[in-house]
User: Fold this.
Amino acid sequence: MESNSVTHDGFVKTKSYGRIHYREAGKGPALMLMHTNGASAHQYELIAPLLAKHFRVISWDMPGHGDSDPIARHFSMEDHAKALAALMTGLKIKAAHISGASVGGSITLAFASLFPARTLSAIPVETPCRSAEAWGSRWSHVEANFAIPTQTVSQIKERVAVVDAALESRWNIDRNKAGGWAMVDVMWGIREFRATVAAKKIKRPMMIVYGKKGPTIADRDALTGAAPKAKVEVLQNSGHFPMLDEPSAFASTLIKFCSKK
Assistant:
């Protein structure tokens, strides 16, 4: 999953969120990419070279993940959004296209609702939008998936279409860097976040992306109903991780939407 497209790999030291690690490639309008729970900036290595032809692409390690500083308390989606704003300030980015998958999608909604002037467009991808009751009924499954960092190839294949040795290694490196507590804390943050409330506040251009084979498309009506003006794209051969399952199609979808904004 490594790529030679990275032009800079560094840290921004923030006052409230510690050091935040990021990877950067390309020039042009800024495009911020946020990974899924238990992953890192490396998750976007397959599509970074494609996007870097059009944008200044920055993928981060969210607080508590990757090489960013650990967290010592609960982080809400709003906390993560403010951390992203601090990263952008450190990189002297006034405004950017904001996109993230899963928890990254929740952070995208939180950021765009809190910082409209810093949002060129918002692209939440495979973003959960479940009721409190739905979260409660499946919480034992959530804990089983995230409290134990290392996963077998069979477990990974339940979520990703193609798993090779490099992906297996990266997957478990990143999950072990984060650790079980931090990953479950992320899930609490998603569970407590009111995605529809945030979506209703967003006035910037928005595209909501789903993988046809992913777990969040079943709840699409709740999120799309809260943002009726948002464009909706469904990637036919993707599950919860379109940057891994269908990188070329996903990159093309981002390029086409963001280039018009």
Q: What stands out?
A: The CA atoms of residues 83 and 239 lie 28 Å apart. The mean pLDDT is 96. The longest strand covers residues 18-25.
